UniProtKB/TrEMBL annotation:
Organism: Pseudonocardia broussonetiae
Record EC number: 4.1.1.36, 6.3.2.5
Protein's recorded name: Coenzyme A biosynthesis bifunctional protein CoaBC
Family affiliation: In the N-terminal section; belongs to the HFCD (homo-oligomeric flavin containing Cys decarboxylase) superfamily. In the C-terminal section; belongs to the PPC synthetase family.
Keywords, ordered alphabetically: Decarboxylase, Flavoprotein, FMN, Ligase, Lyase, Magnesium, Metal-binding, Multifunctional enzyme
Reported function: Catalyzes two sequential steps in the biosynthesis of coenzyme A. In the first step cysteine is conjugated to 4'-phosphopantothenate to form 4-phosphopantothenoylcysteine. In the second step the latter compound is decarboxylated to form 4'-phosphopantotheine.
Highest taxon listed in the record's lineage: Bacteria
Amino acid sequence: MTTPPSVLLGVAGGIAAYKSAELLRRLTETGHSVRVLPTASALEFVGAATFEALSGHPVHTGVFADVPSVPHVKLGQQADLVVVAPATADLMARAAHGRADDLLTAALLTARCPVLFAPAMHTEMWEHPATRANVALLRERGVVVLEPASGRLTGRDTGPGRLPDPAEIAELARLLLERPDALPRDLAGRRVVVSAGGTREALDPVRFLGNRSSGRQGYALARVAAQRGAHVTLVAAHTADLAAPASVDVVRAGSALELREAVLAAVKGADAVVMAAAVADFRPVALAEHKIKKGSADPDPLALTTNPDILAELVREREPGQLVVGFAAETGDASGDVLHHARAKLARKGCDLLVVNAVGEGKAFETPDNAGWLLGADGSESVLAPGSKALLASRVWDAVAPRLS
């Protein structure tokens, strides 16, 4: 039997501490062994009993509990991952300067595994030079400090500093367990555009032509790029009720024509464009004004027309130096296998990189995991091994970042 990953969940004393209970639930339900290390202030917001019940482990804040087992050393040494959510300005300041005045900060000093901080604080605190210096110092030492979300804070305040969604933190935690070096800051200063989800082509006020895309892969691409330092615009078609990634500008689109308009507007001045959206190839010639009624006779044939080829247009109209990445969902047939059709599509579209997914039989669509191949216009081909969609996203950005240089 495989030993479950050992995760330390640090919880600092901020109002967002209540969200750590959901994060804890997500981590335990996906097979992780989680030990919660709250600060004394965190227990003013969420009681120890909550963390103990959800984790199945005792909760302590000080270094003098269970002294014979030396927890302030052993916990960090034995962890596969440390996640601190929320990470307050005070906690990050203490961690950056090597303080070890409670169990959490002591464990951070002994940990040699990946460490993930999810900040949560008021905008003024996040933007203060002292906090920015501490974040930079932590990142310089290899700590992953997430960009916070922007939104409602305590009281009536709104702005950057909101804790990222627990589902997003859990996804990035899994990514670091799969691949500890998945979130370098190699896209800092870059502008990227990602499209995601499936377009819908209306037949009447009720029905539409669509596809099975959930948008998860495009959202993972946007999420990973933002946490690697990029300024990200996500053009989102219809998705599986996904929360907006932290620190990402989201533009909504419905049909293929709407997506085309939004993408062409967003790519001006962008360094890279990744077309992960599943764009409908066809749309009805005419939209029925009223719901098409079911009668005794067979319905009239549906007349379709071809939608614009957005990927080909992006390649044709791109700015100098702009990198274009396409996606291909393929199946093999009598004329060739998946890679045969993918290579032909890469040559036909003219993009720099093409991510290829074999679809069908529970693959790619509507699943949390993905796999495939990455084809380059320079003739390169690499396998994208099975794993989370965030892992595949990290591999794509690995290929994009050096090409931007």
